[in-house]
Design brief:
With 397 residues, the chain is α/β, with parallel strands linked by helices. Helices cover 37% and strands 18% of the residues. A six-stranded parallel sheet has the order 5-6-4-1-7-8, sandwiched between helices. It has a six-stranded parallel sheet with strand order 11-10-9-15-16-17, sandwiched between helices. Strands 13-12-14 form a three-stranded antiparallel sheet. 46% of the residues are buried.
Length: 397
């Protein structure tokens, strides 16, 4: 696959740039609570300023059904001004944006109103896309987190532009995920270990199929592991959460990948999540049906640690217990510590997914790469590309 073009490859001086970013940041009482997504795009924003581009900044906020004032991107202006040390213009309409792009100076920024205020955005409308594409010379995608959607600003607009490049943060994300996806040409093959948790097999069947193809070992945890344990005849059906409708799917994967799938050896069990009278660690084969398996046990934690010590690259997605109910978060906390230590020893560690970020807590800065992209992160691992990323590889010289 060709390399993505970046701002290091293209002269954007004096050119009108369509920059798709994700500045959909959490808000409370009209105030932005977390600016990490802006921080992630700062390098690209500053590069466009330094390279004297005329930049139209395009983002969404929330999921508006109509033009909701509480979701206007106008609230972002002071944050952009502080980050760029420059006044940023605001365009409430497409016509306003076009006029501002024509009349502004090189190095200026225009922030467009919430792109989802236009219904044509989520429809990927061709005419709407052409209108916006014709206003600009260069397309830049710095919004990996929405690149799994075929929305106008992510997929259809770049189709109508000759120069399509990746923002620095998007390139950073793709470079790590490509290490997992493109392994067939590696000699000798990398030892990729995937740790996959969460509650439901039903939401991760496609992900599991993909990871079992690219990984040497896949360790399962959380509620989804219970489904596999029941399917394998190791866990008695009872009070432990498992998906009865997916037992056949689990058996199919176990039969096709008998040497790749590792299941918990032991687990923390309890008689009640909310008011437990009994909590203890038991080997999985010894768990009575009246108890629920709610976390991995010490033997499983040691098994994971041993496998991590052998791996070249480790991927983690999903809690390995009922993380939201302490003390049943202990197993996931141990995994976070194991990955942090593996990183210090030189292993590439990659984590993603909202619940996974919560499990990592302050240790998220100790891993090689932690994605905040959520759905796009998982879909990239399933498909090894995304519509909004793939379009950047096409139709340029």
């Amino acid at each position: 696959m060709n390399n993505l073009l970046s701002l290091d490859d293209i002269d954007v001086s004096g050119k009108k740039v369509f920059l798709r970013v994700d500045l959909n940041m959490p808000m409370k009482d009209g105030q932005i609570q977390d600016v990490s997504r802006l921080d992630a795009s700062i390098k690209t924003l500053k590069a466009l300023k330094e390279k004297s581009a005329r930049t139209l900044v395009v983002t969404h906020m929330g999921r508006p059904k109509e033009k909701e004032s509480s979701l206007s991107t106008h609230v972002l202006l002071p944050f952009l001004k502080e980050a760029l040390d420059i006044d940023v213009m605001f365009a409430a309409t497409v016509d306003n944006a076009k006029t501002s792009l024509e009349s502004c100076n090189d190095g200026d920024f225009i922030l467009l109103e919430n792109i989802r205020f236009w219904k044509e955005e989520e429809q990927g409308d061709s005419n709407f896309s052409k209108e916006l594409a014709n206003m600009c010379d260069v397309y830049v995608n710095e919004a990996f987190s929405v690149s799994h959607r075929k929305h106008a600003s992510v997929y259809t607009i770049p189709k109508h532009m000759d120069t399509r490049i990746a923002g620095y943060n998007l390139m950073h994300e793709v470079s790590y995920l490509q290490q997992l996806c493109h392994t067939t040409d590696t000699t000798p093959p990398k030892f990729i270990l995937s740790l996959v948790g969460g509650s439901k097999v039903s939401t991760k069947m496609k992900l599991l199929e993909s990871l079992l193809t690219m990984s040497k070992l896949v360790v399962l945890g959380g509620g989804m592991a219970n489904t596999f344990l029941v399917a394998a005849g190791k866990l008695k059906p009872g009070n432990s959460f498992y998906e009865n409708d997916f037992l056949d799917d689990a058996r199919d994967l176990l039969s096709r990948y008998p040497l790749k799938i590792l299941l918990p050896i032991d687990g923390v069990v309890t008689d009640s999540l909310d008011n437990p009278n009994t909590t203890m660690a038991l080997d999985i084969v010894n768990v009575p049906a009246k108890y629920s398996v709610v976390d991995i046990g010490p033997k499983t934690i040691q098994m994971i640690k041993d496998k991590c010590s052998l791996a070249h690259t480790i991927l983690w997605n999903g809690p390995f217990g009922v993380f939201e109910n302490p003390p049943f978060h202990s197993g996931s906390r141990h995994i976070a510590a194991i990955l942090a230590e593996a990183t210090r020893e030189g292993t590439t560690t990659i984590a993603g997914g909202g619940d996974t970020l919560a499990c990592l807590g302050p240790l998220k800065d100790d891993l090689s790469f932690v994605s905040t992209a959520g759905g796009a992160f998982l879909e990239y691992l399933e498909e090894c590309t995304l519509p909004g990323v793939q379009i950047l590889y096409e139709n340029y010289v």
